[in-house]
Amino acid sequence: MNNFLFLGGDLRSVYAAEKLNERFDCFIYGQENLWLPTPIQTPVLREVTKCRNLVLGLPSSCDGETINAPNWNETIYPEIILEAVENGGTVFAGKAFEKLSSLCEKHGFKFIDYFAREELAVMNAIPTVEGAIEILMRESSSTIYDMSVLVTGFGRLGKVLIKRLVALGAQVTVAARKFSDMSWAEIGGCKSMHISELEANLSRFDAVINTIPAKIFFEKEIKKMSPCLIFIDLASKLSVFDKAFIERQGIKVLWELSLPGRVAPVTAGRVIADTILNIIAETRSD
């Protein structure tokens, strides 16, 4: 695989490069004035150098037009891949966007969306959940023990979340669409209800943690919420139909995107590196 250039991204990209640098020659570009929780050995470049492989951050773009590079003071456009990738090289990206994938196809670069990998999604749930619990503890004047918490959704993130909350003594209810998920939640020590029952039950919760990337809280549901409710949204799409409306009811919505990169960039970066190593191993075995 020769070498890797990690371009843009947050601190996860820095520590993914550091982990991969143990086996390949890696370089970092699009990062400056970094405060690093642990030091790195991977070279940080001031100019782009061509490598066989390019790795973009997670997400690769926040606006669908430019490369996500929050620690860089200049705008980076997708066309930079022409300067950064050798002929026939590979572009690894966290969440694809059309301009990038089209450029890769046009110029003959192999394109791989590492965010689509199941192992990354599963392992990413751990720092996300730990970050959510830290937020819940910070925002609440009560202990998590005996707190009444509603978790909406029972996917990868929801499964990890309820396990941690139950272990801390919270009284957890899971709202799900599938009756099979409701049964699994009850086996895990939670109460359950169908997602259609939200309106009738919201008034009894101290906190809501959403994991469903869709709008499920509308005016009638929001009016049933207590003004003291702690509302944490972990989904990629906000679950509230109107953020201003819910805040007018006195409820603060904490929409917490990219928690792994903020609360545990070292661990989250290593997860990205391990995922890329898995992709390489599969490619070599084909």
Write the layout of secondary structure elements.
Elements: E1 3-7, H1 11-20, E2 25-29, E3 51-56, H2 81-84, E4 85-93, H3 98-107, E5 110-113, H4 118-139, E6 148-152, H5 156-167, E7 171-176, H6 179-187, E8 191-194, H7 198-201, E9 207-210, H8 219-222, E10 230-233, H9 243-248, E11 253-255, H10 259-263, H11 265-285
Parallel strand pairs: 1-2, 1-3, 3-4, 4-5, 6-7, 6-9, 7-8, 9-10, 10-11
Helix pairs in contact: 1-11, 4-5, 4-11
What does this entry show, briefly?
This protein has helices at residues 11-20, 81-84, 98-107, 118-139, 156-167, 179-187, 198-201, 219-222, 243-248, 259-263, 265-285; strands spanning 3-7, 25-29, 51-56, 85-93, 110-113, 148-152, 171-176, 191-194, 207-210, 230-233, 253-255. With 286 residues, the protein is an alpha/beta fold.
CATH topology of the largest domain: Rossmann fold
CATH class of the largest domain: Alpha Beta
- Number of helical runs? 11
Tell me about the largest β-sheet. 6 strands, parallel
| Element pattern in H and E | EHEEHEHEHEHEHEHEHEHEHH
**End-to-end distance:** 15 Å
Q: What structural class is derived from the secondary structure elements?
A: alpha/beta
Rg computed from alpha carbons, rounded to a whole number of angstroms? 21 Å
Instruction: Give the overall shape.
Output: elongated
The share of residues in extended strands comes to 15-25%
- Please state the second-level CATH architecture of the largest domain: 3-Layer(aba) Sandwich
Low-pLDDT stretches: none
Helix content: 25-40%
